[in-house]
Amino acid sequence: MNVWLLLGLLLVHEALEDVTGQHPPKSKSPKEPGENRIKPTNKKVKPKIPKIKDRDSADSPPKTQSIMVQMMEKGRFQKAAATLSLMAGQALELRCKGSKIGWSYPAYLDTFKDSRLSVRQNERYSQLTLLNSTAADTGEFSCWGQLCTGYVCSKDETKTGSTYIFFTEKGELFVPSPSYFDIVYLYPDRQAVVPCRVTVLSAKVTLHREFPAKEIPANGTDIVYDMKRGFVYLQPRSDHQGVVYCKAEAGGKSQISVKYQLLYAEVPSGPPSTTILASSNKVQSGDDISVLCTVLGEPDVEVEFRWIYPGQKSLWVSLNRTKGP
C-alpha cells in the first residue's frame, strides 16, 4: 500500500515538471573572495558633458581691469573714484600699475608745459604728481597699459584707469578760460560744444542767449549738458547762431561764464583749398616778384607752407605755420 502511494506521488511530480517547465534550482558554487557580485546589465548610461562657463568662452570680451589708485593721507592708497572733488592748492598723486604706462590729462597742463606736473615711470608702476592745483586743472586724468613690440606701442584696452577731478577754488565756479570771448563753429555734420565746465560737482548750470535775452533749455534732444564737456549741440542748425553764455549756481552763489559767439558753417568739413597768385607772369632780370599762396579751410586747423622753386638744391626752403583761413 505504501509503495503504491510513493509511486503515485512521484508520477504527479514529473507531470508537473513537464507542464511548468521548471526545474529544481542548481547548487551554486561558492564565490571567491573579492569576486564581483553585481550582475552586468544592458542599461545604457548617458555620458555627462561638462558645462562650459561663459567666462571661458572664446567669444566673450576680455574684462577691463582698473589700474589707477589715488594716494591719500598718511601714505594710504585707494582705488580712484570715477569723479573726485578736491580743494584747489591740494597736491594730487595718482599711480597706475604697470611697467609701461601712458597718461592723458587736461590739455591746459600740456600746452604750457606746466612744471607743477610730473610723470615718472618706475619698475612696477607709473606716478603722476600735480602740485599747487588750481581750478584750471579741472578735467579728466586717465592712464593705460602699453603693449610694445620694439619701439611700436599700442594701448592695452584691458588695463586702464580714469577719474574726473573737480578742483574747487573760492570765487571760481567755472573752469577759467584764457579769453573773455570765444568762437564756436556750428557744422551741420558734427556736434558743437559750448565748453563752460564747472569746478563744483553740485553746481546747477544753465545756458542763456544774450539777444534776445532768454534761457536756452537743454531738452536732451537738441542740446544736452555734459559736466565733462559743457553744453553739447547734437544737431547744430542755423537758428542756433548768436552770442550765448552760461550761468552756474552753487552754495548760494552764482557766476556767469565768458561769452561764446556761435557761427553756423553751411559747408560740411573737408580738406582745405589752395590758390597761388604771382604779382607778374613775366619780369626782367633783376626785377622783384612776389607770390601769394592762400589757404581756405576750417578755422583752428594748422596749415603748413612749403615753398619750391627752380635753381635750388634743396626743394624745401621755408616752413611757416598759421591758423585760420
Automatic annotation (TrEMBL):
Predominant location category: secreted
Annotated Basic residues bias: 40-50
UniProt cross-references to InterPro entries, sorted A to Z: Ig-like_dom (IPR007110), Ig-like_dom_sf (IPR036179), Ig-like_fold (IPR013783), PDGFRL (IPR042495)
Compositional bias annotation for Basic and acidic residues: 29-38
Database matches in Pfam families: VEGFR-1-like_Ig-like
Domain Ig-like: start-end pairs: 62-143, 272-325
Any one GO CC term of the record: extracellular region
Name of the protein in question: Platelet-derived growth factor receptor-like protein isoform X2
Originating species: Phyllostomus discolor (pale spear-nosed bat)
